[in-house]
Amino acid sequence: MGGMDVGGGIAGKLWNKFRSESVFVNYTPFFVCLAAGNLSADSFHHYVSQHVHLLNAFAHAYELAEECADDDEDKKAIRNLRKYVQAKLKSHDSLVREWGFGLPEERSLTNATVKYTDFLSATASGRIEGERFPGKLATPFEKTKVAAYTLGAIAPCMRLFAFINKEIQALLDPNDSTHIYKKWIDHYCSENFEAYAFRIEELLDTLSISLTGEELDVIEKLYHQSMRLEVDFFSSQPILQEAVVPLSRTLDPAVGGELSIFCDFDLTCTAFDSSAILAEIAIITRPKADPDGSETQLARMSSADLRSTWDALSAQYTEEFEQCVESITTTETAETFSYEGLCEALEQFAHFEKAANSRVVQSGVLKGLNQEDIKRAGQRLIFQDGCKGFIQKIMKNENLTAAIHVLSYCWCGDLIRSALSSAGDVKALNVHSNELSCEDSTTTGEIIKKLESPMEKLQAFNNILNNRDEDGQHLTVYIGGSVGDLLCLLEADIGIVMGSSPTLRRLGEQFGISFVPLFSGLVAKQREVVEVGSSYWKRLSGTLYTVSSWDEIHAFILGSSS
Q1: 343 assigned to active site
Q2: Burial of 234 (0-12, 13-18, 19+ CB in 10 A)
Q3: Alpha-carbon distance 550 to 264, whole Å?
Q4: What residues are paired with 435 via a beta bridge?
Q5: pLDDT per residue over 525-538, tens digit each?
Q6: What pLDDT, on a 0 to 100 scale, did the predictor assign at position 330?
Q7: Long-range contacts of 457-461 (CB under 8 A, 24+ apart)
Q8: φ and ψ at 178, to 5 degrees?
C-alpha cells in the first residue's frame, strides 16, 4: 500500500500507526467491484443512501464541536468544516446525477451505519468511555477536550477515503471513459477533497497541543475505533454480483469446497531466519562435554570460537548464494515464461543449499542443543505482524474447510511447531521441514534432511495435493518469499509473494515471471468474473501476486479483521 504524507502532528502519527488497516476496506467486495467498474447500480445506490446518513452525522458532530471550542479561530475553522459537509448534502443529488446515476430510494439505516453515527454523536456529546464529565461540560478546557476528541473521531474517515480512492485511481486508465465510477473516484481524489481532509487533520493537531498524554491516548483510541467502524461500514455493503473477495466465500462447503494454504516459514511467517536462532542457542548453551563424559573439539571451543565458526559459515553462505544468483542472471532474459529454464537454474540452488547444510553438519555447531531450549526459543520467536492472527482466524473459522501446511528449509520442525503453538492446535498445523537428530533430548549435530531444494519442496507440495479427496472444489494458495518457494508459488492456484525479495524478483523476471500487486490482480480478476461468469480461480501461468503484509492476505482470504 502506498504512502501519503499527512504531516508530523498527532493526526499524521495516528494515520501512520493505523494505515495498515486500510487494506480491510480496500479489499472489501464493494471497493474491488467498484474499482473493476462492475459494481451493480443497486449496490451503489445502497451505499449512497447510507453515506447521506453519515454526512448528516458529521455535520451534527461539527456543530457540537464548534460549541465546545474555546478559541474563536478554532470555532471558525470547525464552522467551515461543517459548511463543507452541508454544501455536500445540498448538492448531493446533483453530484449523484453528475456521476451518471439516478437518485437512490431512501433506505433504513443498516446496523453498521447506526453504530458509526451513534459513535460520532456520543463522542461529540462528551459521552466517551473512560472520560468523566460531571453533568454539563462546565469548564472551557473540558469543552476544548471534547472538540479535539470529535475531530479525532472524524479525521480517519476522510483520510481513509482519500487514500483508498487514490489507490484505485492509480489502476485506472485516465483516458478510459467507459469506467462508470471514474467520476466518483476522481471526485474523492480531487485537490478540493484532499484539502478538506488536511484541514481536519490540521485542526486536530491544533486542538491537541495542550492535551496530556492520557488525553492523547483517548484520541488515539477514538481514532482507531473510527477506523474499525469504517471497515465495518464498507464490509457490510450488500453486493449483488459474484465477487472474488473474500476468497473464503467463493468456496462452498456444501459441495466439498476446501482451501489448502501453504506457506514458507523463515522470513515469511517470521521476522528472523531460524538458522541464526538455532546457532545462537548453540552459542549460549554450548555443551561442556559429551554425555559419555569425554571432551570433544566442540566442547573445548569457547562461545567466542563457536560464534566465529558460525559467522564464517554465514559469510560463506551469503557469498556463494550471490555467486549462484549472478551465474544465473547473466544469461539472456526469457521473452516469455520459461518453466524449463527456471527449473534448470534452480538445480544450481539445490546443489548450493545441500552443500551449505553439509558444512553446517560437519562444523558441529548444531551439536548439544537441548530440545527444551529449542522449544522455548520457538515460543519467543518474533512473527511478521498479522501472521499469527491470520492463522488463528483460519483455524477457528467454522464456515471454512481449510488446511494449513508449512513447507520450510528450517533445520528443526520442533522449532516451527513450538513457534506456532500459540496460534492454535499444533496438530491441526501440518509442518513439513528438516529435523535435528536427537539422543536423550540432545541434538547430535546431524540434520535429518527432508527439504533442501525447490524441487523437494515442490514434491512435498504435490504429494499433499495427491493425498486429498478428489471430490469437491479445491483451491490452493501458496505464500512465500524466497527463491526456494518459486516452484510451489507457480504450481499453486494462487501464488502470493510476501515482501520484496530483490533476488526472487530478479530471478523470476529472468525467466519471464510476472509480479502483480495483489489488489490490482483482484480488480482484473473481478472484471473477468463479470465477463466470464465464474469466480473460480484458474492458475495464470507465470504470474505471481505480491503483498507487503499479512493483513493483505487476511483481507483477501477472510475479509474484515473484526
Answers
A1: no
A2: buried
A3: 13
A4: 448
A5: 999 888 776 656 77
A6: 77
A7: 457/407, 457/409, 457/484, 457/485, 457/487, 457/488, 458/487, 458/488, 458/491, 460/407, 460/432, 461/262, 461/407, 461/488, 461/491, 461/492
A8: -90, -15
Position with higher pLDDT, 300 vs 161: 161
Which runs of consecutive H residues, i.e. helices, occur in 91-133? 92-98, 111-124
Would you state the cell numbers that stand for residue 57, as one nine-digit string?
A: 452525522
> Residue 293: which residues within 8 A CB-CB, separation 6 or more?
none
Using the predicted structure, report yes or no on whether residue 2 has a pLDDT greater than 50: no
Q: Please, what is the average pLDDT of the chain?
A: 90
Burial bucket for residue 333 (CB in 10 Å: 0-12, 13-18, 19+): exposed
Helix axes 274-284, 371-379, angle to 10 degrees: 130
Q: Each residue of 81-116: pLDDT tens digit?
A: 999 999 999 988 887 888 778 777 777 899 999 999
Q: Residue 132: what are its φ and ψ, rounded to 5°?
A: -120, 105
Residue 230 appears among annotated catalytic residues? yes
Q: What is the mean pLDDT of residues 312-326?
A: 96
Contacts of 210 by beta carbon, 8 Å cutoff, 6+ apart: 141, 144
Contact 422, 431 (CB under 8 A): no
- Contact between residue 560 and residue 30 where contact means Cβ atoms under 8 Å apart: no
Cell 480531487, residue?
190
> How far apart are alpha carbons 526 and 523 in whole angstroms?
5
Q: Evaluate if residue 447 carries a pLDDT over 50.
A: yes
Distance CA 97, CA 359 (A): 71
Please identify which of the residues 230, 435, 456, 491 carries the catalytic annotation: 230
Q: Name the active-site residue from 21, 33, 68, 157.
A: 157
**Whole-angstrom distance, CA of residue 110 vs CA of residue 128:** 23
pLDDT at 293 over 70: no
- Say if CB 280 and CB 380 are below 8 A apart: no
Strands 474-480 and 494-498: parallel
Query: What's the pLDDT at 561?
Result: 58
- Among residues 381, 403, 382, 379, which one has the least CA distance to residue 391? 403
Cell numbers found for residue 130:
473512560
The model scores a pTM over 0.90: yes
